[in-house]
Amino acid sequence: MDTKKLFQKFVAFTTAVHRVKHEMTKDVRTGEITPVQYDILEYIAVSQPVTLSEISDCQHLSMPNASRELKKLAEKNLCEKFAASEDRRKQYIRLSKKGEAMMNKVFESVEARFLERIKHASEEDLKEIEHALDVLHAKAFYS
Amino acid sequence: MDTKKLFQKFVAFTTAVHRVKHEMTKDVRTGEITPVQYDILEYIAVSQPVTLSEISDCQHLSMPNASRELKKLAEKNLCEKFAASEDRRKQYIRLSKKGEAMMNKVFESVEARFLERIKHASEEDLKEIEHALDVLHAKAFYS
DNA sequence: CTCTTTAGTTATCATTTGATAAATAAATCG
DNA sequence: CGATTTATTTATCAAATGATAACTAAAGAG
């Protein structure tokens, strides 16, 4: 196998994923939050409940900066902190009602665009897409 | 086909691509340039020669901001502008020798990590990966 | 019970990024 | 030719982000 060619495809593909993701989410960000705050909210939505340390690690933010941004999100009533019973230093974070509502709207909108994007795909195509997602996730974009 | 489930895979996959790309490129950025400047350089490297307007469009930067960042890159001798003969308002932009050298090193390093990432894949696996890249690029992450 | 480590906060400062207004200069349109 | 559009620049300001130091409070180790 010509891995050089494979690598080029890998790069082009990665760029395409970036572009498409940006296009699908660019206007879902309300004026209320910054890009970094949106990323944090998205992460919480998918992984809640999470700790501050996890946000810091996964979003590549220092603890002080993560703490600051989370405070702003809490002030905007988009997420809530609650103490962990096992360890009183820790706190778990989850979306508030308002945060849930916002992220639900976001995901609905993104899903609609996704469906639009695959609307001309046949049942076969969809199977192929699903399989391709599984393959790449497992063999190239694993953690 | 359960498109709900497919959408969830799509989201999880997109996140994984982000994460992997970040991991593969995080330390290739020398201290000399900012993240936005790195993105511009990467875009020039792949698409050169490009115009300022193209950078502005593709990198989602306003013209004034694109112009500013490009000026900084030119001052660092990482890229060069040259007038377009057809239209004297335009200028084409390409990497300088130094910029080429920098980006070559970057791509080498990323390629090495890519190879590391797929080193345990069999010849069959590689074929499957390549096919999956083609399928997804054409049917889900097209432009 | 001290010592060290872990989780998180607050404050501060520098840098980066984004947004906007106003300018130049060349191309194109009528 | 004059008016408009296109490509780009410069300047300026506000906001977002990143980095660092110094702090509190609880947990865990010996």
Automatic annotation (TrEMBL), chains A, B:
Keyword Transcription regulation: yes
Keywords annotated in UniProt: DNA-binding, Transcription, Transcription regulation
Protein origin, superkingdom: Bacteria
An MF annotation (GO) of this entry: DNA binding
UniProt-listed PROSITE patterns: HTH_MARR_2
SUPFAM superfamilies tied to this protein: Winged helix' DNA-binding domain
Annotated HTH marR-type domain residues: 3-138
InterPro entries in alphabetical order: HTH_MarR-typ, WH-like_DNA-bd_sf, WH_DNA-bd_sf
PANTHER family reported for this sequence: TRANSCRIPTIONAL REGULATOR, MARR, TRANSCRIPTIONAL REPRESSOR OF EMRAB OPERON
Record protein name field: MarR family transcriptional regulator
